[in-house]
Specification:
9 helices, Jelly Rolls, alpha+beta, homodimer, Arc Repressor Mutant, subunit A
Chain lengths: ~240, ~240
């Protein structure tokens, strides 16, 4: 897939703050971060623009500077469903580069998004300056594995209404600047494996308590502490 | 955790076949596999023996030679549940070594199991012979990430009865030598996020059709192709 625009070069300080705040780059030395920005290609995708497909072997590793990316997964070649949404500082698409496999997920921009892309050439240049790059990439893959294991733990919560709350709490993490999400009820249901009826019932309950606000195609967490407390104490099955 | 027995050394050919058949080592050259066995420590765990706990920082990377290991996960410090069961050729516990983090899962032997363990010293020795070890470990972490993403896809299957079938199909993979699993109905329910009633109803239906056989604390897949066909066509909600 060709991005809408592609260029090298680093805009002024602060532009890449979102990328650097993620779990991986925040652990890397400043010199590594700067070099990564210098060699990486900037790529811009519009809303609904596909970035990669399950089955392709695009070897680019992609990091999110701004915007958000939907990760679609399918079980045994069934219809893909929205598995999760990732945002600034998160990376995706490492499989083809690290194990020479095809992509196992599809990725779509959910809003205008800026990415940094590291293909074979960029990684080679980065490794010239940082010969321990493979070790750093092993750390990235492990962080990814831990992150996805967290999704498993979330999907093992028995009650649908609590899974819905858990997804909202995760996607609206404090500091992410995301207290309001462009998110439909059916997308929320896909990520929480909850029926449309469950989602609508749960959101109604949560809105009545002032914990969330539901707009057209948007959901906002209004009271994070309250939603956490509701998650911990609620035992109703939606 | 101290294993029941611990020793270096490689028994005769064939002993490590299970370890080598897994997704990671099967891609490594024979010289690497042999060196790994030579430097690795063998460790034996009895049934129900804990191997590692969520929150510990044991830096050993562990590979399964024989037996099976239950991986327990907990969401927001709630009661741990059985997330999955892994067997010969699979590796676990890479987090502390690769990102210096604490373990995010707990691991328990489900039957007498033999493991190969690679701690700091063993990895250092392996790296002396194979300076590209970090790259190989990046591949291992990526394979792990792909594997766990598969669990997410499975848990996003909407119908509980089909999730139950999917778990059985995954755990009884052909070639794993596991057509019968030491598995209780409540453990199956935990892994599939299905209620006890769903599990018992689904197993009854599958047994009536001759697809599975349910014994005391054991479940056997009798007709794998039939179970796959049932998974693909069934749309009943258990």
């Amino acid at each position: 897939m060709e991005p809408i625009h592609d260029a090298r070069g680093a805009p002024g300080d602060g532009h890449f703050a979102g990328l650097f705040a993620g779990a991986w780059l925040s652990r890397q030395p400043a010199a590594f971060r700067q070099h990564l920005i210098a060699v990486g290609r900037r790529a811009f995708y519009g809303r609904r623009y596909p970035i990669g497909f399950e089955g392709d072997d695009d070897r680019r590793i992609l990091g999110i500077v701004s915007g958000s990316i939907g990760c679609l997964t399918s079980h045994r070649q069934h219809m893909p469903v929205l598995g999760t949404i990732i945002g600034p500082g998160q990376w995706f698409g490492m499989g083809p580069q690290l194990i020479g496999s095809e992509r196992i997920l599809s990725f779509v921009a959910r809003e205008p998004s800026e990415l940094i892309s590291l293909g074979d050439t960029e990684l080679w240049r980065l490794r010239e300056a940082f010969p321990d790059l493979p070790q750093r990439l092993a750390g990235l893959a492990q962080l990814q594995s831990n992150h996805i294991a967290g999704l498993v733990a979330e999907l093992l919560v028995p009650e649908a209404d609590r899974r819905i709350a858990a997804v909202l709490l995760r996607l609206c993490e404090p500091g992410s600047g995301k207290d309001s999400l462009p998110l439909s009820q059916s997308e929320l249901g896909e990520m929480a494996n909850a029926s449309r009826a469950s989602v609508s019932r749960t959101l109604r309950v949560l809105a009545q308590r002032g914990l969330v606000e539901v707009g057209y195609g948007r959901i906002a967490v209004e009271d994070r502490a309250g939603l956490e407390a509701w998650f911990e104490t609620s035992r109703t099955v939606a």
